[in-house]
Amino acid sequence: MNRIDFSHDTQAAAVIASYYDAPPLAYVHSYGCQQNVNDGEKIKGVLMDAGFGLCNKLEDADLILFNTCAVREHAEDRVFGNVGALKSLKEANPKLIIGICGCMTQQPTVVEKLRKSYPFVDLVFGVNGIDTLPALLAQKLQGGKRLLQTPSERYDVVEEMPVRRDSSFRAWLPIMYGCDNFCSYCIVPHVRGRERSRKSADILAEFRRLVAGGYKEITLLGQNVNSYGKGLEENIDFAGLLELLCAEPGDYHIRFMTSHPKDATFRLIDTMAAHPQICRHLHLPVQSGSNRVLAAMNRRYTAEKYLELIDYAKEKIPGITFSSDIIVGFPGETEEEFEETLELIKKVEYMQLFTFIYSKRTGTPAAEMPDPYTHKDKTARMARLLAVQDEIAARLARQLVGKSYRVLVEGHARQEGALTGRLDNNLIVEFAGDSALIGQYAQVYVEDARATVLKGRLD
Ligand code: SAH
Ligand code: SF4
Ligand code: F3S
C-alpha cells in the first residue's frame, strides 16, 4: 500500500477552463453500494476542484459520468441500457463528453463492449482513477480521441481527496478499500482489488472534520470492516478503531458495514455494547443457512458459529437488531438447503433482509458450478423467503409501538407536513413536524406499525 495525497491539477484545470465559454456542468450518477456512492462524492469533489459545476439533468450536462456496479448481471444490464439512451444526447450535442467508470469498467470484456458497441462513449476509467480524472479530461479535450483505459490494479490509498457529500448530516467514511475474501460467487475482489486499510490517523482526521461540520450519522465503510488494520504498520483492529473514534466528543452516532461473520469477534460486540454512540444494529450478512452451501460459497464460517455471535450480541446488547444479505439459488442449492436458510432466519429474527437471486459472474468459481435449478424454482423460493421475513419484521416492528426513541430526522415523508426519522435499528418512522428539524435529532413516540412502516409523534 502506498499512501499519497491528492493535489490540485492546475494544468488540467486551465485546459478545462479554456475549452468552455462558461464553467462546464457535470452530471454524475453512482450505482451500487455505499462505497461506490462515496466514490461518486469524490468524483464530484474532484470535478468541482477542476472547475466544473454540478447539474441534476442529463440535458444540462457538458460531462456525463456513470459510476457503475458489477455485482449482479441485472445491475450491469441496467447500466448498458442507460448508456445506450445517451446516444441521442451526444448527437444533439457533439461537445458532450460521456464517461463510464467504476466496478464494471475493471472488467476487460466490458471495456471491449463499450469500445465496439458504444462509440459515443469518450472516456472509460476504473475504480482507482478518480484523482487522475482532471488530467484525463484535459487529455481528451486536447486530443479529441476516445480514451478507454484498460483496467489496471493500483494499490495507492489517495488521501485528502475533495468530497462533495450528498447529505449535510449523514456521511460515508471509508476505512478500507478492496476485498481479499473471494467468496466464490462474488466479483467484488476481482474489480476492487486487494484489501488496503487507511491509516487510523487519516480516518480520525476525516471523522473529526465530519463531527465539526455537524454530521450526525457517520457510517464506516469497507467490504469487510472486521479485517480493518491488516497490513498496516500500526497495531490496530476494527474494535480498536471504534474505540479511537468513540473517544471523540460530539453529537453523533456511528454505523458500519459490512461485517463479515468469519472475522466478527465477541470483542467487536463488547465494543458496541460499551459505546452508546454506536448504533445497536448489526448488519451481518449470512448469505445461507446451510453449511454445505456456505462452504461452497467460501464464506469460512458455519451456521452454528454465526448463531453463536448473534446469541452473544442479543445477550450483551438488549434491543439490538440485525440485518443480513441472503443469496437464494446458489448453484446446486437444494430444497433442504434452502429450508435451512429459512430456519436460520426464523432463529435470528432479522429486522431487515436484503435478498438476491444468485447471479452468475464470469470469472468467479461459482460460475463453473453445476446449477440444475431453474430461475422459476429460484423465484418461487424467494417468494417463500420474503413471506417468512415479512412476518418476522412486522412482529418486531409491532414490539416498538408504545415507546419513545431518539431518531435522526432525514427528510419529508410523502404525506404533507410529515417528516421521516431513522431509528437506531435502521427503521424509518413518520411523524408530523417542522422542516427545520431535518438533519437534527428528535425524540419520537411510536404509535403504530403497519408492516415495517412506523407512525409516531414528537415526544
Ligand atoms: N462485502 C459484503 C457484500 C458486498 S456485495 C459482504 O461480504 O457481506 C453485497 C451483497 O450482494 C452480498 O452480500 C451478496 O448477498 C450479494 N451478491 C454478491 N455477489 C452476488 C451474486 N453473484 N449473485 C447474487 N448476489 C450477490
Ligand atoms: Fe464479495 Fe465476499 Fe468480499 Fe463481500 S466478502 S465483497 S461477498 S468476496
Ligand atoms: Fe457494486 Fe462495486 Fe459496490 S460491484 S456492490 S459498486 S464494490
Plain-language structure description:
The protein is α/β, with parallel strands linked by helices and 459 residues long. 35% of the residues lie in helices and 23% in strands. The protein has 14 helices and 21 strands. The strands form six sheets. Strands 3-2-4-5-6-7 form a six-stranded parallel β-sheet, with helices on both faces. Strands 17-18-19-21-20 form a five-stranded mixed β-barrel. The protein has a three-stranded parallel β-sheet with strand order 9-12-13, sandwiched between helices. Helix 13 (335-348) links the parallel strand 15 (321-328) and strand 16. The longest helix is centred in the last third of the chain and has 24 residues, at 375-398. It is globular and about 60 Å long. The relative contact order is 0.08. Bound molecules: S-adenosyl-L-homocysteine, iron/sulfur cluster and FE3-S4 cluster.
